[in-house]
Amino acid sequence: MLLYTVPAVLSVLVVVLVELLWLRTGVFRTARYWLAMLIVLGFQVPVDGWLTKLSDPIVLYEEAEMTGVRFPWDIPVEDFAFGFGMVTLTMLVWLRLGEREDRRARTPSLQETP
């Protein structure tokens, strides 16, 4: 039933929809977001590749629950979907909370008004 693949794909879809329909931070249109994702991949590939290498795996997967596609090296493609979802959602929440703080800083409190 692909119990690893389906949630991986859903995590990507949910995070993209959260951004496009609710948070609307515009992060997907920024070069620094995509640069950050490249940096994440730069670390994810060697670490995930080492953890999932078929020759001596540290992390084991139930192959029947996945697509079986592993690239590069022996990394299940589902790991990249989950990674995208986790990192992107974290960035979106961080950006949204930062916007809130900025609004609070610009709004005078009741004590400050004459």
UniProtKB/TrEMBL annotation:
It holds the Pfam family Lycopene_cyc. It comes from the Bacteria. Pathway: Carotenoid biosynthesis. Its main location: membrane. The chain crosses the membrane at residues 6-23, 30-47, 80-97. The keyword Electron transport does not apply. NCBIfam families: CarR_dom_SF (TIGR03462). This is Lycopene cyclase domain-containing protein.
